[in-house]
Every structure is written in C-alpha cells, then in structure tokens.
Amino acid sequence: MSDRKKVVVNGCFDIIHPGHIKLIEHAAQHGDVYVFINSDDSVEDLKGHRPYLGEEDRAEILRAIKGVRAVLIFKNQEDLHNLYAWMTPDVMVIGDEYRDKTVVGKEFCKKVVFFKKLPGLSTSSIVERIRNAASTDLR
Fold first, then answer.
1. How many domains does the structure of the chain reveal?
2. Which end of the chain has the least Cβ crowding within 10 Å, N or C?
3. Is 15 inside any structural domain?
4. 3-state class (DSSP) for residue 33
5. pLDDT tens digits, residue range 41-61?
6. HEC string for 65-129
C-alpha cells in the first residue's frame, strides 16, 4: 500500500453510472480509493434479485476508473466488517442517506465523509427508465 491515505467506498455498484463515478472522484480527493463490493449472492440477499452485472464484471469496470487502487468483494455484513477491521481506512466515503444509520465498519475509520447523491442517478432509476422505454417500444 502507498503512503497516501486509504479511502474506502462500498456498495453493490450494479449498473455503474455517473453517480458512482462522482462518488469515486470525490473519494479520490482524500487519497487512494479501495472499493468493497457486494458479491452476487450478497446483492441477491439485499435486493431480492441477482445483480444485472456479475461481481467480476463490476470489479473489472471499477478497477478501470481513475483513482481506484483495488476492488475487494465481500459476501455478507460480517465479511464487510472484517475487511474494514483488516484495512483500518483513514477515510470512509458513503452516501449521505446513511448519515443517521448504522454503518458497518465505521468504527475502524478515522474519518467518515458523507457524499450527496446526484438526483435521478441510481441503479433502480436506470432500470425503471429501461423498463418504461421497453414497454413503450412494445406498443
């Protein structure tokens, strides 16, 4: 690892979109970015469906983003907790919707930075737009 600060972001990162890029760019302002992503099974447990992109595809795309030093895949909340305990990041960057919620691994980070999500940029909203476009095309 480098002498720069270790900055961690985590999430599903399914259908990677400009909001994810902005999050990583913001995180990179604080140091080297390490991305912890949910495994395919973990996404299914969390969201109730398989991810649209598999874990290896998501990891490969994330590794290609400027500022990302490494991508690690976690299987469950305990696994995520253990990754944070192992890495002991200097900074955690997380969406501001988690401001008043319990955040796994927060206790291992020296600093937590909340990132304001960009409106209309979420995997769910993209999937909804695709579904609406597909149903319109079928008419």
1. 1
2. C
3. yes
4. strand
5. 999 998 888 888 999 999 999
6. CCCEEEEEEECCHHHHHHHHHHHCCCEEEEEHHHCCCCCCCHHHCCEEEEECCCCCCCHHHHHHH
